[in-house]
Amino acid sequence: MSLPLIGRVPVRGRTLVQAQDDISARYAKSYLQSPQVTVSLVRSGQRVTVSGAVKNPSVLTIEGTVTLTMAIAQSGGVSEIGNSDRIHVARTTTGQEVEDRVYNLDDIQAGRSPNPVLRGGDIVVVEDSTTRLALKNVKDVLPFAALGGLFLSDVSAKRDLTPLAEENGLQLYRYRYAWSDRFYVGVLAQDVLEVAPSAVVRGADGYLRVDYVRLGLRMQPWEDWIASRAKLMNPPESP
User: Is 207 helix (H, G, I), strand (E, B) or coil?
Assistant: First the structure.
């Protein structure tokens, strides 16, 4: 921030008390005797994304202290297909590396585990219950059975599907392929069929593949998607 007489004062990363003490010391050094300084936070502008298997996925603005349980409660709580044992908090750390920690909501609420405090740019993702999601996905795939006996959907090859946000009218999912442990963010072919069938290609093996170039989207590694979302939600301060 910039103030009369003393000019620019760095406050990023400091508490309100630390900022007050620094400003008071600067004024007392050359201009005022026993200055009384009060620093208040009108709006932090720091945001947290809560997505996945919650009832109301949302982007929350941090006002004061926001814990993981508070963020989930403000997003309507865990949905009927949510897995409260596996809740991710992805955070971009120094050097743009992504730290992805998994928490158990039941343990936190029972006092067996600490309730983490969220920071601006954090992305909270509640995983789906594998059993419940499998039943839901079978139901979703049934309408496409008429495409032929060799039909294979994205669901048959993708694992740990977790809905995130919407982009260009399509649901984005976090998932991994059955043969890999690396997570990606992308769309499902059966969803794309409903809105842009020309962007879905059926291979000789019967598997439906999404043409991301034609769709105007791109599949990203999970850590790249987290980093891009963090930059979008919390752009660097102008000098």
Answer: strand
| 175 contacts: CB under 8 Å, gap ≥ 6 | 158, 159, 160, 161, 162, 183, 184, 185, 186
The alpha carbon of residue 42 and the mean position of all alpha carbons in its chain are separated, in whole angstroms, by 25
Q: Look up the pTM and report it.
A: 0.49
CA distance 209 to 5: 63
- What three-state secondary structure class fits 99? strand
The CATH architecture to which 1-40 belongs is 2-Layer Sandwich (3.30)
Q: Phi and psi for 199 in degrees, rounded to 5?
A: -95, 5
Does this chain's domain 1-40 share its CATH topology with 47-128+227-233? no
Strands 123-128 and 47-52: parallel
Architecture category of domain 47-128+227-233 in CATH: Roll (3.10)
Please give the residue that has the higher pLDDT: either 87 or 6.
Answer: 87
